[in-house]
Amino acid sequence: MFRTALIATALFVTSSVLAEAQPAGNRVKVNGMQIYYEVSGDGDPLVVLHGAYMNIPSMGTIIPKLAKTHKVYALELQGHGRTTDIDRPITYPNLADDVAAFMDAVGLKKADIFGYSMGAAAGLQVAIRHPEKVNKLIAASVAYDAEGWQPEFTAFIPQMTVEMFVGMPFAKDYRKLAANPDGFPTLVKKLIALEHEPMAWEADVKAVKTPVLIITGDADVATLEHSVAMFRLLGGGTMGDMGKPLPASRLAVMPATSHTAVINQPELLHAFIEPFLRGETPKGMFE
Fold first, then answer.
1. At 223, is the secondary structure helix, strand, or coil?
2. Edge-to-edge strand ranges of the sheet holding 44-49
3. What superkingdom heads the lineage (predicted)?
């Protein structure tokens, strides 16, 4: 998921509801780390990026759903799940460069990317820093500027402490998969520091040519106004039915949905993602 604090309470529950067996895992050396990843399904390649404190299982059943029509490369980011950590901060540019290097390492010249929360921001940075590698981007629960966070979350960031997170139930779950079972406090420090990293990407987003599907909950960590502003930066928000093609990018709002509830609605996510990747649009009266 994404913003470090909100992920704390609801994420690892999804790992217990997976109905299908996980595919065999693989590891590849990338930027000094051993990145763990799983490949499933057939079709056009789709890279899946999880949120902070998460791993592949905690992304839930959206991965096997996507694997029915795509070749899914799900990976675990720096210090998460079975991927090793290195002596380096976790930043969105760093994560994006890791994803690009991962694609090179496994022979992926170009792919679609689906990211949730922290993974969505990393995916957005891939589209900014390595646009030649991205066909389409699905960014769920994302922001492009720190000013876009809900005021409650912005006020909470200075209160975050390592102790606050190490006492949470999912801290025990971390040990079950982690390459370093004692590495959780270090991961928390890095993810708290990530919340303090500057984030002001408006000019970069406006220059993005990659089609982007923005998915947000109506009670997400980013404000609805921020999601709409991002959609407009990408060329969206114009009127249809006027004889002009619809914008390449899209915006989807999930009703009655908090940040941590976004990833727990795989059917709705899938209903948004598949038509976008296929380039399908609803037909209007004048078509």
1. coil
2. 25-30, 33-40, 70-75, 44-49, 111-116, 134-140, 212-219, 250-258
3. Bacteria
For residues 4 and 1, give the distance between their C-alpha atoms in angstroms, rounded to a whole number. 8
- How high is the pLDDT of residue 61? 97
Pairwise CA distance, residues 213 & 138, whole Å: 5
C-beta of residue 279 within 8 angstroms of C-beta of residue 213: no
Give residue 136's domain range. Answer: 26-238+246-278
CA gyration radius for the chain? 18
Residues recorded for the chain: 287
- As averages over each run of 10 residues, the pLDDT of the chain (287 residues) reads 45 41 83 97 97 96 98 98 97 98 98 98 98 98 98 96 90 91 96 96 98 98 98 95 90 98 98 97 80
Is residue 148 one of the residues assigned to a domain?
Answer: yes
**Contact by Cβ (8 Å): 47, 101:** no
* CATH number for the domain that contains residue 94: 3.40.50.1820
Q: What is the pLDDT of residue 172?
A: 86
Per-residue DSSP letter, 56: S
CA dihedral 278, 282, 285, 287 (to 10 degrees): 0
Pairing type for strands 212-219 and 111-116 reads unpaired
What does the block give as tokens for 243?
A: 């004889």
Q: Classify residue 11: in a domain, yes or no.
A: no
List Cβ neighbours of 26 (8 Å cut-off, separation of 6 or more).
Answer: 36, 37, 38, 39
In the numeric block, the tokens 């901060």 are attached to 89
- Is 2 part of any domain? no
| Amino acid occupying residue 14 | T
* Structural domain count of the chain: 1
Predicted confidence at residue 287, as pLDDT, reads: 67
Give me the pLDDT at residue 188, please: 97
